[in-house]
Amino acid sequence: MAWALRALPIDYIALNPGASYRGLHDSLVNVLGDLAPSMLVCLHEEHAVALAHGYAKVTKQPMAVALHSNVGLIHASMAIYNAWCNRAPMLILGATGPVDANRRRPWIDWIHTSQDQAALIRPFIKWDNQPASVGAALEAILRAWQTSRRRPYGPVYVCLDVSLQEQAITEPINLPDPQRFLPGEPPMPCESSLDEAARLLNEARNPVILAGRVSRDSNDWERRVSLAERLGATVLSDLKVAAAFSTEHPLHPFAPAFRLCDDAIDLLSRADLILSLDWLDLGGTLYTVWPDGKPTAHVIHATFDDYAMNGWAMNHQRMAPVDLALDGTPDTVVEALLHRLPNTSTRPQASRPPEASRTKDISGLSLDLQALAEALNEQLDTQPVSYLRLPLGWPGSACRFLHPLDYLGYDGGAGIGSGPGMGRGSRPCPQRQRACAPRHPGRRRSHDGNQRSVDRRPP
Q1: Residue 353, pLDDT score
Q2: Model confidence over 214-241: pLDDT tens digits?
Q3: β-bridge mates for residue 12, sequence order
Q4: In the predicted model, what is the mean pLDDT of the chain?
């Protein structure tokens, strides 16, 4: 099983040591040694999962996590729920005491054994398995890795019987080649749907783009900016998800926020077309603007998120009245639309409100918090900074996001305790190089356009 992890492109495994996966742990130490995946020892199972979650926020790649039996899984369940709500990929390896009751040690093996352990978290994972042989365990690990990496992303869980981990191998094990089990590219909307979307966008006089859950790739970022500029479309973004559009761009007139401000609601009410790029809670947003659920604007929604719905978790939010549903990743849809739209636009560019109106305290916050945010911007100055997350009361007017790694979004499930693990797991790579200008209000930073794609695993 350790060699199966070694065969996969997984750099790290986060764990809080537990006896239920002692066989796997022993192999990671004494068989793999210094080979990948490197072990990251954590003080709590919730931290281990949160660390993998933070890593996935930046790289969009799954990290491995090892959890101790049922008690460790219960500890980790809040962090797993965060990852599920955030659509974060990760490969979780759990364990159980001996399934064969005759092999359980008195007391401890009994309280650390459960039947159908994955039932604890099945409503908020993509897939689970409890293999009964070494060969089945290898396939389960491979399938879990493949499933986690298929859109929409999410955590997966493989439970390993402690007796299986210590079973003697009597014949050679043939490790599969992971390159032959890669998930395919996500499907694209059909040509006719993309053509219709381009036609509606080209005819719209007052389009608005809702930039939601999109990639951390800097090329995708530039394509989103190009689409907005080509359409002359106003752009709104959301502090519940990661940075999706430059907050300093003239087409992004309002500060990102956890909830729509009155000006943003008024803007949407006057739009004749809304393009949602996997906007979180599109239904709630539209019903906020049009309480009768009948938007006067055409609504185009590009998302895969409906494929992650189930009957337990309600994080799919309210149903949205949509005129054209594009089942595809928002970034592939943006690229396809750029190929279909004229390369120039005669529409007037949206105007930005005066800087004073963007930085003043308009949300009822204390002036001390506003002053703190502005002082932080002043002190950070030219440093490239990634905000792991921001508190609910943080003034969006102080947010200066000019790069997809400037802000990594909320924790997904709105729980507590995720900070230490996610802070470590999402630590930006040293290869993140860019040209920066001061962060002071009214001044801009620029990027060299050659940012390393974060959709690749860091070294």
Answers
A1: 55
A2: 999 999 999 999 999 999 999 999 999 9
A3: 38
A4: 88
Query: Which residue's entry shows tokens 């990948």?
Result: 36
Token look-up 């399934």 returns 99
- Helix H, strand E, coil C: the string for 261-308 is CHHHHHHHHHCCEEEEECCCCHHHHHHHHCCCCCCCCEEEEEECHHHH
Question: How many Cβ atoms are within 10 Å of 3's Cβ, its own excluded?
Answer: 14
Cα–Cα distance for residue pair 223/434, rounded to 1 Å: 18
Instruction: Compute how many other C-beta atoms are within 10 angstroms of the C-beta atom of residue 51.
Output: 28
Tokens for 7? 């065969």
Residue pair 8/84 in contact by the 8 Å Cβ criterion: no
What does the alpha-carbon distance between residue 311 and residue 304 come to, in Å, rounded to a whole number?
Answer: 17
What is the rounded CA–CA span in Å between residue 81 and residue 414? 10
Give the Cα separation of 124 and 158 in Å (integer): 14
Question: How many whole angstroms separate alpha carbon 65 and alpha carbon 92?
Answer: 5
Query: Mind giving me the DSSP string for 122-190?
Result: GGGSSEEE--SSHHHHHHHHHHHHHHHTSSSP-EEEEEEEHHHHTPPP-S------GGGSPPPPPP---
Contacts by residues 343-347 (CB-CB < 8 Å, ≥ 24 positions apart): 343/230, 344/230, 345/229, 345/230, 345/231, 345/232, 347/205, 347/231, 347/232
More confident residue, 248 or 430: 248
Residue with tokens 């930005």: 352
Domains and CATH numbers, the chain: 2-180 (3.40.50.970), 191-365 (3.40.50.1220)
CB 35 within 8 A of CB 6: yes
List helix spans (H) across 351-439.
355-359, 367-380, 419-425
Angle at 405 between CA 401 and CA 408, to 5 degrees: 90
The whole-angstrom separation of Cα 235 and Cα 252 is 5
CB 45 within 8 A of CB 67: yes
**Residue 109, phi then psi, degrees to nearest 5:** -70, -25
Residue 152 has pLDDT above 70, yes or no: yes
- Run of H or E including 79: helix 69-85
Position 72 scores a pLDDT of: 96
- Per-residue pLDDT tens over the stretch 182-209: 998 888 999 999 999 999 999 999 999 9
pLDDT at 361: 42
How far apart are alpha carbons 371 and 375 in whole angstroms? 6
Q: pLDDT value at position 145?
A: 97
DSSP type of residue 31: I
